[in-house]
Amino acid sequence: MGNKDKAKERREKRLQDIRLQRTIPYSDHQRWWSKETVAVVTGGNRGIGFEICRQLATHGLTVILTSRDSSAGVESVKALQEGGLSVVYHQLDIVDNSSINQFVEWLQENYGGLDILVNNAGVNFNLGSDNSVENARKVIETNYYGTKSMTEAIIPLMKPSVVGARIVNVSSRLGRLNGRRNRISHVALREQLSDVESLSEELIDRTLSTFLQQVEDGTWTTGGWPQVYTDYSVSKLAVNAYTRLMARKLSERPEGQKIYINCYCPGWVKTALTGYAGNNTVEEGADTGVWLALLSDQTFIGKFFAERREINF
Ligand SMILES: NC(=O)c1ccc[n+]([C@@H]2O[C@H](COP(=O)([O-])OP(=O)(O)OC[C@H]3O[C@@H](n4cnc5c(N)ncnc54)[C@H](OP(=O)(O)O)[C@@H]3O)[C@@H](O)[C@H]2O)c1
């Protein structure tokens, strides 16, 4: 058996283990949440986001399913409510500041805040062997700046608690800094982005604007950017860097007001974003995000996960 087949076998075994773990109910001492625990999911109308909503609500939390398109979101909520789940709808477009502000106001007024934020909304315009950067600006604006705007707007609303509030960013292994086949080839930049102490919003912004400038003037192909799904990979690299940067900032919060922020890769999932060409089901894709959101003894902050295990950035 070749290395590729062995890796495939290991992955399948790991997924099987997780499938089994998902069937084991949380015990009473693990269940720190109740129906009053509020989880907000962005891009919840379909794909992994919808499944995250379904799994969290099945565990007994109150879920606020949000979507940029109201009619799609309302339909999705209806499907979950018909299954007896506690899911509520609100419109939210993560690249529209007025939509974010209206949502935050509504959340504060109706729920007094939240316990869990899942930054799931995202876009990708590359399929198969494409590597077009035609939509690079939109990809960066949504995947990175949208996630950042949401996080900044929501942090003041996160409820203080003994177990800590949680932010889960749905990211991708494509955004790994040290991926073997898909990484920034500029060593100094990679080192700067790797070192959590030298990470800053300015560094991330500068990296993204250099990339977008090169897209505009057509020089990006020789810019040393990730080789596969370049714009999407750069956007997720920024999400990963931001997760670590925010973890550093949030770790200064006192006991009782902790916010644990982490990110994860759902694997290659059969959703619209991959043209339904992935290996994993949405149940598998949502699993690690839900697991992270519900961990009873949160000790992770600023880490990257896949298949319920920590992986390297
Ligand atoms: N599928 C994979 O293999 C894979 C792998 C790694 C990471 N991910 C990540 O997983 C997340 C979910 O993706 P998916 O695979 O479930 O794709 P999907 O089915 O295309 O879902 C993406 C969701 O994001 C929403 N969205 C896009 N832009 C938005 C905006 N400005 N404001 C609010 N919502 C917005 C979409 O809304 P509309 O319905 O209105 O378009 C949709 O609900 C993304 O962050 C993606 O990058 C996916």
UniProtKB/TrEMBL annotation:
Pfam families referenced in this protein's UniProt entry, alphabetically: adh_short
Classification via Gene3D superfamilies: NAD(P)-binding Rossmann-like Domain
Enzyme class: oxidoreductase
Statement: the UniProt record of this protein carries the keyword DNA damage: no
EC nos: 1.1.1.-
InterPro entries in the record: CBR1-like, NAD(P)-bd_dom_sf, SDR_fam
Entry GO CC: membrane
UniProt keyword Amino-acid biosynthesis present: no
SUPFAM superfamilies: NAD(P)-binding Rossmann-fold domains
Keywords of the record: NADP, Oxidoreductase
Molecular function in Gene Ontology: oxidoreductase activity, acting on the CH-OH group of donors, NAD or NADP as acceptor
Family of the protein in this entry: Belongs to the short-chain dehydrogenases/reductases (SDR) family.
Name assigned to this protein: Short-chain dehydrogenase/reductase
